[in-house]
Specification:
The chain is an alpha+beta fold. It has one domain. It is built from 1 helix and 3 strands, in the order ββαβ. A 3-stranded antiparallel β-sheet has the order 2-1-3, covered by helices on one side.
Amino acid sequence: MTAVLRAERLAPKFGRRVRHADGRLFDAEGEWIVLDAYYRRLIADGDLVHTVPPRKSRRPKKGTPA
C-alpha cells in the first residue's frame, strides 16, 4: 500500500512562529504544503492550522489610483 501525499494550505496559529523542516519560518498568510509526518505533527500540536488563500478583490481600494 502506498501513502498518498496531498498539498494543503497551512498557516501558523495566530501569534506563533513556526519553522519548516529546513528551518525557514512559515509565512503568516499561509503556504501550500505537502503534508508529511512533520507537518501533521505540527497540526496535531496546534501550531499550524488549515487556511484558505486570501481572495483578490476586483476593485481597487479607496484612495488608490486606478
